[in-house]
Design a protein that fits this description.
alpha+beta; two-stranded antiparallel ribbon; 75 residues; 2 helices; elongated; 2 domains
């Protein structure tokens, strides 16, 4: 039921109502409204340098990814 009516339950939470999600009559999750702030998640600093992506096999990165982004933006 939650999957089919997710928008409805998110709207209830947005209105400040707690929504309990149950499975076999046991509470497994709770949707709460966000209080205060602008509702955006805080930005987190990266934990690794972007050059780390070069070490990942199979992604086809042949240069420093940040250099490729800079090249694209300068076009």
């Amino acid at each position: 039921m939650l999957k089919q009516q997710l928008s409805h339950y998110l709207a209830l939470a947005r209105e400040g109502k707690d929504v309990l999600v149950t499975n076999h009559k046991r509470i497994i999750a709770r949707l709460l409204s966000e209080s205060g702030g602008d509702g955006r998640l805080p930005l987190r600093q990266p934990t690794k340098d972007i050059s780390f992506l070069k070490d990942i096999g199979g992604c086809g990165v042949v240069e420093d990814p940040s250099e490729g982004i800079i090249k694209e933006r300068n076009v």
